[in-house]
Amino acid sequence: MTISAEFLEPIITLVLLLLLAVIAFGIVRVRGLFAVVIMLGAYSFLMATLFIVLDAVDVAMTEASVGAGISTVLFLGALYLTDVKEATGRARRLAPMLVAVVTAGVLIWGLSDLPEFGSADQPIHTKGADYLDRSIPETGIQNVVSSVLASYRGFDTLGETAVVFTAAIGVLALFARRRSDGKG
Amino acid sequence: MRLDVVLRVTTKFILAPLLLFALYVQFHGDYGPGGGFQAGVIAAAAIILYGLINGLAAARRIVPDAVLERLIPAGVLIYALVGVAGMFTGENFLGYNHLAHDAVHGQEWGVFLVEAGVFVTVFSSMVGIFYAFAGRRRA
After folding, report:
1. Which chain B residues have a beta carbon less than 8 Å from that of A175?
2. Any domain includes B139
3. How big, in percent rounded to 5, are the helix, strand and coil portions of chain B?
4. N or C: which terminus of chain A carries fewer CB neighbours within 10 A?
5. Is residue B46 part of a domain?
6. ipTM metric
7. Closest by alpha carbon to B123, among B52, B64, B47, B33?
8. How far is A85 from chain B (nearest CA, A)?
């Protein structure tokens, strides 16, 4: 007995989204930050799986390696430097609740303007640049994501690389005080 | 951590495949998923794993701070210089068409070099941020 992909895919997506919601709830409720960091890693892996279901393999790879890999290590490093227990703040429940409800309301309102999920007749698919047809004859690159990132939209990627560079020198400037202390 | 045999042995086994996988992701990005960014993160993860198991000093012997601080801007420079090189061949900034004897090969060279630049900056940034966190004493 074979199960068709059209039937299976929504179920997989639903299960993943449910698990994401459960983990998000856990992240908010749990006070032990060590458990929270591990749950953030699990969240990233679920997100990566969801990206794979949506055929965005490049994004999934980035999410898994950065979100679940490097971020977890950096979070654990931050925990080592601070504390593994979340500080219990004063009870100010009303204002955050209001902000959350308003934000959620605006997002759901904006959702109604989005095109139907997976619809092929949107302007982005019909009027945009036809990279799918152009990529192989013009660049010889079969993965259109790569050719768009590095060639057609190379300027954007230069900007992204500059952002990573800026983040790195920012962190190094904040943390590497010891060496400048030594110089005087 | 030093006495944890399972972690140490597993790390030893996994390090070489991890670096190899980073190279695969880097150079196979034209045909499959991946590219400079993902490969840079995976290669950085290998160094970070080594640092977690063998201590920060051991990792710093493989990739010293002085090297990192040169690599972080070097990647952006490689990227920008490829763009300038395109200008010298009579194209726009970051236009690769005239980098080789025909347009398709020019594009392949351009994309290859640009991805290498992304790899260098992402790899060194990730390792550098990890060093910064791990090298700090607890307050």
Report:
1. 132-133, 135-136
2. no
3. 75, 0, 25
4. N
5. yes
6. 0.88
7. B47
8. 16
